[in-house]
Request: fold
Amino acid sequence: MNSPLRVILSGGGTGGHIFPAIAIANEIKLRFPDTEFLFVGAKDRMEMQSVPKAGYRITGLWISGIQRKITPENLMFPVKLISSIYKSKKILRSFKPHIAIGTGGFASGPLLKAAVDKKIPTLIQEQNSHAGITNKWLAGKVDKICVAFQGMEKYFPVEKIVLTGNPVRQDLLEISSKKEKARKYFGLKDDRKVVLVLGGSLGAKAINELIEDQLELLKSNKTHVIWQSGKLYFERFKKHSEEDGIQVHEFLERMDLAYAAADIIISRAGAISVSELCIVGKPVIFIPSPNVAEDHQTKNALAISSKNAAILLKEENLSSDFEPLFLEVLKSKSKQKELSENIKKMAKPNATKEIVDQVMELLSAHNWKSKKN
Reply:
C-alpha cells in the first residue's frame, strides 16, 4: 500500500502558471490530507514567494526562458538546462514522488523531463489556446495533457489530450448572490452601470492610457468605473479617484466582489483571466497584450470572440474602435444578453476537480492506492 501520496509540481515565471499548480495541489490535499508536496520553480521568479505563501514547500532551479533575440542569457540557456535537469534528477531521487505535474513555464521543462527519464507518471496542464514552448517540448514524453481549449491536437498527441479547462478560484463559482455585498464593498450608491477594468497585477500601459483618454465618455454615459491600474501604474493614475464615479485601485483583493459588481468588463486575455470570465458570464471586451510569446493572448481571445461570446479589440485599433464598440455593448441590452449567454456556455467550473481526476487515474494505472482503498 503506497501512502502517503507524494506529489511534485512545477510551473512558474508568471501567475498564469503558478496559480493552476497551487489549485491542483489544493484539490489533491482536499482529497488526501496527508499528501506530501514539493514545488519546483525557477530561482528569483515570483513562484519562490507565491508558493510558500500558499503553504507549500518549493525549491529553485537555475533556469530562465529563451529570449526572442540573441542575448548572453540565450547563450547560457543550454548550460542552465543541463544543470537544471541534473538538479531535477537529484530532487526526484530524494523526494521519490509518485507523480510529477507540470503547469508550464520554463522551470517545468527540466523537472518533467527528468521525471519521464525516471519513469515517474507525468501530467502537464496547458492553460492557453496556443501551447507554450515548454509544454510542446514535453508533449511527446509525458503520459497525459490536460487542456483548456478545443483544437489542441495541433500541438499535442491527440490520444494524450483531456479537455478539462483551467483551474479557477472557487469563490467565483457563485457570484450572482453577491451583487448587493459587492456594491456596498465598493461604495456604489446609485444604479449606474459598472465598468470593471483589469490589466493584471502589474498593470497594462495601453489599457490604463485608454481609460484615462476615455474618462469623459465613461462619465458622460453615467457609469461607475472600478479600475485596477496595477502596481506599475498606480501612482500615475490614482489622481482620477477624485473624479465622480471613478475608483482607481492598485490591486483588487476581492475579485469575486469586483466581478459581482461589474456590468461590463474590459480585460487582458491571459488564459486564467479568460477562464474566470467564462464562469463570471458578464459582457467582456478583451484587449490582448501583443507583447507575449507567440501572441497567445490574441489567440485566447479569438477562441471566445469567434463564438460571439466576447468582443476582441486589438491595441492597434483602440483609438478608432473603442468608443463605438463600448457604446454598442453599454446601450444594447440584447447585445449584453447575447455575450453573457454565449460566454457562459464556454465555462468549465469543475476544471480543477477534473484535472485531479486525471491525476488519480494515472496513479491508479501505475498501481498507487490510497489508504481509503
Q: What stands out?
A: The longest strand covers residues 36-42. Residues 171-344 form a domain with the Rossmann fold fold (CATH 3.40.50.2000). The chain has two domains: 6-167+350-365, 171-344.
